[in-house]
Structure formats: C-alpha cells, structure tokens
Design goal:
By secondary structure, the chain is α/β, with parallel strands linked by helices. Helix content is 17%, strand content 34%. InterPro entries: 2Fe-2S_ferredoxin-like_sf (IPR036010), 2Fe-2S_ferredoxin-type (IPR001041), Beta-grasp_dom_sf (IPR012675), Cbr1-like_FAD-bd_dom (IPR008333), FAD-bd_FR_type (IPR017927), FNR_nucleotide-bd (IPR039261), MRET (IPR050415), OxRdtase_FAD/NAD-bd (IPR001433).
C-alpha cells in the first residue's frame, strides 16, 4: 500500500490503492485546504518533493503548467503510484503552515443582513485572486484614515469563489464597527488584509470536539465547524452558544441545517438575559452565565478537544470552568477591545 509522507514532520499516512491523497489524509484526520474536490479550484495544491502520482484531470486555472513543472499537484485528484509520495505539509511539529497574508485585496460587499439587534452579517467576494486561509483565522477590515483596520474572524469555511462571511458587532463608540454596520452597503468595495491568527487547532484531532462561543465569537467557531463536518469529521461535535436572549441566537437557518445534515452535530443554547414570558420551548436551552452553567450541564469534557471564542472575560471564565471539571486540550480565541472596536486576537492554548 502506498504511503504519504509529510515533510518536514516525517509523519506517514497509508493511502489505499485507488484513493486520492486528500481522501487518505482526511481519513486519518489530517486536513488539507480544499473546496471543489474535483480539480477546478486549486485550493489543495501542494509541492510534491519525491515520488510519482497520477494527477488525474485538473483544470489549468487550478494548477498551471508552470506549477506542474515545479512539482506541484492538486491532492483532491492525485493518486500515488510510487510506494512513498512525499509532500510539503506543515511544520516540524506537524502543525499547518499558515498562508502568507496579503494586503489591500479588493472585495465587493455582495450581501448584508441584520442577524440580531446588535450583529450584522457581511458577505464579501474578491475582485482579485481569493485569499487562502485556514478555518478559524481572521482578516482585517477598515478604510484608513477614518476607519482603522480591525480584526474580524471569518464565519465560513474556505470557498472556491473566495467569499468571506463576517459577523460584525455594533459598537456605539467603535469607529470601524460603526462604519461597517451603519454605512457599508451592498455593492461597496472593501479592502481586506489577511489572513492572520493560529486559532485552527490540531488538524490531526482524533477526539470528540466541544465548541463554546459567546456573541460574535460564534464566527470562528462556525468556520471550524463547517470545515470539519464538510470534510467528514466523524467524532461528535457539540456547539454550546451563549446568547443574551432568543433574539440574539444566529444564524438559525445554518445551525438547523447542520443539525439535520450531520448526525454527529449538536447545538446547545444558553441565555443570560432571557425575558420573562418569552416562549423558547422549541429548542433546548439553559439560563445563566455559561461558565457557571457548565458544571450542571450533561456535557462530558473527558477526552475531548475544546475550542472557546468570545470576549476576553468570557473565554477566560469558560476556560477555567472547563479545566476545573476535567483536563482537556483547550484552544482559545479571546476578542479584545481595541480603541472602541471589538477585535479578535488569536491565541492557541
């Protein structure tokens, strides 16, 4: 059976005959960026250091002739022919190699919608080559000098058309957030910098996953969730979302789709300011601050990987609560206030 060797870590992954490199890596929990899985987008192209492979049909727009001559291959279609196929993937400690950030990439606002009373969703598509990123990372949006560049996490997994989805919280005294939520409209052009951050977890995670989010911290959590489920992650995925009231729960349609499409996905909603007399019996829910609720929930953190995103106090309190219940691998993304705007700072812990 052929073996795929990852350089420079040296990790080796078996590749059954007839299976593509991408499928073999995913079967063992290793995540390569990908979208089309049909040789049309080029998202999964990597440098092949040694060995031979059948590339299959790949469009030149996804993998140019020059790239082929340089040894690159599209792993969604590539099938090993030699006993060992060595590809460049990640670092010495087997973590993914981050894509170099780009600056001032023009994007058009293709959609804008109010998700909650305080959160606006913006969808942007590039006029240039799409920005490659890992789920969980963030970009910078702004317009100098009046609206300083601020960090906002993508809420979607990478797509072939390069579309980026952002959840922006209205901040009364935030120069950039106020502009994005009040002045920016469909058809406007925004300049985007990125990607940044390392809130991407371990691509070889082989445990159940618990994702905890508060407010707009749901953005990187949704990106990670969509990407994992779409690539066939088989372990249980539980998302715990803390909102003020039922009106602050979003995006309801996408969450409902994930629950119905993937048997291993479950969401739990908690409310901190649930108004009396409001009926939310249509879905399971808890009341109170999430860090205080975690010990009483029927949630086991034993042998899990936990991802937490939200405001800095929220992330800190939830992380302490989880560690007090059970030691677990915890990845955090605290959002801090940068001169009036809530921005995301990536910390892997």
């Amino acid at each position: 059976m052929p073996v795929i060797r990852l350089y420079p870590s040296g990790n080796e992954i078996p590749c059954p005959n007839g299976m593509t490199v991408l499928a073999a890596l995913e079967a063992q929990g290793w995540a390569l960026p990908n979208n089309c899985r049909a040789g049309t987008c080029g998202e999964c192209k990597v440098k092949v250091r040694s060995g031979t492979f059948d590339q299959g049909f790949v469009l030149d727009m996804a993998l140019s002739r020059e790239e082929r001559q340089q040894g690159y291959g599209a792993m969604c279609m590539a099938k090993p022919l030699s006993e060992v196929l060595e590809i460049e993937w990640g670092t010495v400690d087997a973590k993914p190699t981050l894509f170099p950030p780009r600056e001032q990439v023009p994007h058009v606002v293709v959609d804008r919608m109010d998700r909650t009373p305080s959160i606006v969703e913006l969808r942007l598509r590039p006029l240039d080559e799409p920005i490659r990123f890992w789920p969980g990372q963030h970009m910078q949006l702004g317009e100098q000098p009046l609206h300083p560049m601020r960090n906002y996490s993508m809420a979607n997994a990478p797509r072939p058309d390069g579309e980026l989805t952002f959840y922006v919280t209205r901040e009364p005294f935030g120069q950039t957030s106020s502009w994005l939520t009040s002045s920016v409209d469909v058809g406007d052009i925004l300049m985007v910098n990125g990607p940044y951050g390392s809130f991407i977890g371990d691509p070889a995670i082989d445990t159940p996953v618990i994702l905890i989010a508060g407010g707009s911290g749901l953005a990187p959590i949704m990106s990670l969730t969509e990407a994992a489920l779409r690539r066939g992650f088989s372990h249980p995925v539980k998302l715990i979302f803390s909102a003020r009231t039922p009106a602050d729960v979003y995006p309801r349609g996408q969450l409902a789709y994930l629950e119905r499409r993937y048997a291993n996905f479950e969401k739990i909603v908690t409310y901190t300011r649930h108004p009396h007399g409001t009926d939310c019996a249509q879905e399971p829910h808890y009341h109170g601050r999430l860090p205080s609720l975690l010990p009483s929930m029927t949630v086991s953190f034993t042998g899990t990987s936990v991802f937490v995103a939200g405001s800095e106090p929220f992330v800190g309190d939830c992380t302490n609560a989880v560690r007090a219940l059970q030691p677990a691998a915890i990845y955090t993304e605290p959002f801090t206030d940068q001169q009036g705007d809530i921005s995301s700072l990536s910390i892997l812990g």
